[in-house]
Amino acid sequence: MTDEAIGVSAEGRALLIELARESGPGLCVLLDDSGCCGPGNVFVQSESPQPSYRFYASVAGIPVYADPAFVRDARPSEVRLDVRSAPRDDSASLESRHGVRLVVAFVPRRRAPSEPVGA
Known about the structure:
Hypothetical Protein Aq_1857, Chain: A
C-alpha cells in the first residue's frame, strides 16, 4: 500500500501486542469489506491471509491486510482500530477470547475545497 500509518487506540495497540505474545509469529489483522466478521469487519488470526488480501499497514510490527474493496475505499490514514467489549462474541477472531473485539472507526477524509463530496 503506502507508508501511511493506520490509527490505533492505546488499548488496541496493547491488545495486539498481548495477542502477539500469546500466539507467536504469524499474527496478522485482516480488514474486510464484506461484513463477515462482526462489528468493524476486523479479524485477528495467526495464519497467513488469503492471497487476495493486500498488505495495508502495520501496528506494533503486526501486519494489517485488507481485502481489495477495503483498500480501494479507505486510505490507512482514514482508519482507526479500537476495542469494544464483546463478552458473548462467538467469533473465531483471536481477541474474542479476551471478551473484546477490535473494531474499525473511519476518520472523515479531509477534502480540498474544490473536491466534490463523495470523491
